[in-house]
Design goal:
Layout (H helix, E strand, L loop, with lengths): L1 H23 E9 L3 H11 L4 H10 L5 H18 L7 E18 L7 E16 L1 H18 L30 H19 L9 E8 L3 E8 L3 H4 L5 H13 L5 E8 L7 H13 L4 H13 L5 E8 L8 E8 L8 E11 L4 E12 L1
Helix pairs in contact: 3-4, 6-8, 9-10
């Protein structure tokens, strides 16, 4: 009889736990996402078993394209848990994150003269389960209290050494959907810096001199490194130009809680970088200079930078012709099929009175 009673009590306890799990778990499913399962799995492996707030922070800082649909799915699941079930977002933990492959969408890329070719785009299903761990924390603390009372240990509620992993200890609070704007924020920072240089600096040659802009994000600091071929544009003239640029970026992007640090590094051979050369050619094309003269002048400038080869390509309505065409000039060696070759590449758009022209530049620097 005693065994029968014990078995019944165990069954009741198991049913209660199952009901509690149903009440504290939230499922979210996203179907037919245009993405391969491998790319989504690479992101889900980083967030499985983590808290809701820590997951949002990780997805914001990761550079993968798969982060955005996963961010939307987790955010909607947490919103449903808060609105429908009354759960607290601070205690939500991702206990399950799986990806399943879906059908492959087959399309046909249209091309002229019968050169069309098929395109295969894989899709996938993503399932995420969130769980509220607040009930489990309370049960662990209660069981520990009972053990201490049985053994004779003194227990005080105000000063306890027995604590579970509290998810509210993370400093970052992510409650809005606008937080995940990783790639867009980086592009906005670059556009803001380039617009500031164009408006406030009077450049006679039409070359801004910005080779590249590196952005390093941390929790409370954003480090921006501007690689310039002509740093006199920002350093000389006004001593507070860097501070003005920093204040301008903070105002436009609303960086209130984060510190912003901007540093400028000089490039020894500016015309050996494809971005600066593309800006030079674009300025010449805006002034209605012949494209061949502009390309040959750019090639002469690269010879001063000790490069082994260069290839320049311009596409669009060149010289205002009605039919668009592609023109290119190569000087030296440009081994695009050699893996050991170190080649710098850049693509640039120019707005002229005839339309938009595209500039592509390949520079063969060295061979490893």
């Amino acid at each position: 009889m005693t065994n029968m009673v014990r078995n019944k009590n165990k069954d009741l306890e198991i049913r209660k736990r199952e009901k509690e799990d149903i009440k504290t778990e939230v499922y979210a499913l996203s179907q037919s996402i245009s993405m391969s399962a491998h790319k989504a799995r690479r992101v889900l492996d980083q967030i499985r078993g983590r808290s809701y707030q820590e997951t949002l922070m990780i997805l914001e800082l990761m550079p993968y394209r798969a982060c955005y649909p996963i961010f939307k799915l987790i955010y909607s699941a947490a919103a449903n848990a808060k609105h429908n079930m009354g759960l607290n977002e601070e205690y939500l933990v991702i206990i399950k994150a799986t990806v399943n492959e879906d059908t492959t969408v087959k399309k046909l890329k249209p091309r002229a003269r019968g050169r069309s070719y098929p395109i295969k785009r894989p899709t996938c299903h993503i399932t995420i389960v969130l769980k509220d761990i607040s009930l489990y924390e309370e049960s662990v603390v209660e069981n520990s209290i009972r053990c201490f009372k049985k053994t004779g240990w003194i227990y005080k509620k105000k000063s306890t050494d027995i604590m579970c992993h509290n998810m509210s200890s993370f400093p970052l609070v992510c409650t809005t959907k606008k937080l995940f704007q990783g790639p867009t924020r980086r592009s906005k920072i670059r556009e803001c810096i380039k617009n500031y240089v164009q408006k406030n600096m009077r450049i006679s040659s039409g070359v801004e001199g910005i080779a590249r802009i590196e952005i390093q994000k941390r929790i409370d600091l954003i480090q921006i490194i501007i690689h310039m071929g002509f740093p006199k544009l920002l350093v000389e003239g006004k001593p507070r130009r860097i501070e003005e640029l920093q204040m301008n970026v903070q105002k436009e992007l609303n960086y209130v809680n984060r510190k912003l640090n901007i540093t400028i590094t000089r490039i020894t051979k500016p015309y050996g970088h494809p971005n600066i050369l593309a800006e030079f050619i674009a300025g010449q094309l805006r002034n209605r200079v012949s494209f061949r003269k502009a390309i040959k002048k750019a090639i002469e400038l690269t010879e001063q930078a000790d490069t082994k080869g260069i290839q320049v390509q311009i596409a669009g309505r060149i010289d205002g012709k009605e039919i668009a065409r592609v023109e290119w000039i190569r000087e030296g060696r440009v081994p695009l099929q050699t893996i050991r070759a170190k080649i710098d590449y850049c693509s640039y758009r120019v707005r002229t009175i005839y339309g938009v022209l595209g500039i592509k530049i390949w520079i063969f620097v060295d061979e490893e």
